[in-house]
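Handout, section 3.2

Students often ask what a structure token actually looks like in practice. Rather than define it abstractly, here is a full record for Alcohol dehydrogenase catalytic domain-containing protein. The first block is the sequence as you would receive it.
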Amino acid sequence: MRAIQVSRYGGPEVLVPAELPDPVAGPGQILVRTSAAGVNYADTHRTDGSYRGGTQLPFVPGVEVVGRTADGRRLLAPIFEARKLGPIFARPRAWAAGTPS
């Protein structure tokens, strides 16, 4: 899938288009085909390395997602990488996200 990937800290010049493997939904996750993803103010801090708590490189910015699940349900939601809750894969174009409990 196509995505913007950040592999080093810096300004807009570090936002690099990349081909990444399609994510696969694991147990307790759903796969969402993303039609739009938002990059917000926190992403600018993640990109320049000043985000509180640090950021692990490489990463794909953008936590707001609009898309559809495989069964056609529409989804508008923030998607986060939850280190304490286990992996949640967040990638523009296709996301595997933790399902609400």
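Discussion prompt for tutorial groups: The chain has a mean pLDDT of 77. How would you have guessed this from the sequence alone?
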